[in-house]
Fold this protein.
Amino acid sequence: MLTPEPVSRRRRRAGSPFSVVVRADLDEAEPPIWRRVELPSTLHLDELHLLLQALFDWEDCHLHRFTQGESPYDQQSELFLCPFDVEEGEDDGVPATDVRLDEVLAEVGDSLLYAYDYGDGWEVRLVVEEVGGRVERVRCVDGQGVAPPEDSGGIHAWNERRGRSEDFAPEKLADALAGWEADRRLPPALRTLRGQVIATPAQQVLDALLRDADLVDGPASVDETEAAEMTRAYSWLLRRVGDGLALTAAGWMPPAVVIAAVEDLGLAQEWTGKNNREDTTRPVRALRASAQSMGLVRANKGRLLRTKVGVAVTDDPVALWSHIAQRLGAPPSDPFRLLAQALLLLAVAAGRPRDVRLHEVLTAAGWRTGDRSGVSDIAAWRAVDGVTAVLDSVRAYGDSDLWRDRSTPATPGAQALARAALLASRG
């Protein structure tokens, strides 16, 4: 006998934001353990997952799922997929990252189930008690009981060990909610990466980078003088291209232009040889390639041309700087490249030198390349070659060559650019 497909209970997203007061009860806890929170309707379920971890003082070390229905494991319940489900190719549900609170918890009485740690089997039922006006931040209104710690054996074992319900004070959650709010405002790629390295040595490395990069407070900006210095190479190329630059038969810039770039931009100390061919002069090749990837120039019918954007920013260094930051923050479609590039930009934003060990963090996050047991250093840096081309061109490490000198820290200007790129990736 075929099992009927679960019926979707999701609503359309609301046109205007609002708030809901939700009570979250830990199922079968005696005495009861619950939290009452006011939430913005625009919260996504992956953010709600992290919030529940904070509210119940858990550590996000196990699998979880959200469902609507009688039970988290009932085949008739609608399933919202956690990242592991998505990575494993599960298609019997909707990714939690794509579901907003106003689709599932919008009216008084609406309920949502949250299951965490399939071994211990913690289950939390969320029920809407009130609907109100728009709010921007989460507020813990009330609660009762101290939640069971990770790996404590399940609710029945916990009930047997507890003598009474301990007093609950919302202010005790202040630090946890502040941490959650900071995580929520992280770029999605870094939020994903942080979840993947929890309880590994790489977590301390990533947390230190996040702390020093300071991605929470305000937008990154740059003054005109600093922007002009950082974008000097791109401005030079845009002016040289002008109304169009004829390429060689092989599609490279003419030798005279390559020689001029090396001389005018002071690249001779970075690259030995005649420096008259683009294909063998890496700094010039990287400049042209990154300018194309940034959407500033394009090749067409044997000529290199400025794009519409390229024309607009040629003589406006601040606009050019901002455009580069926006394009650097655009997420690539490949998930490995996405995380690797976000990690490199984070290291630059934190002022770290080029010797940051990307492959170790990515390996701790569970990534593998080829038949290796982890990610090789070469594979990690190949994944960020587009970003390194831009870093080279804006002199992210001053006069030090990105590849030859791995000990020089990123310049303040490069930190601001990387920070702006990461903030742009938040959408």
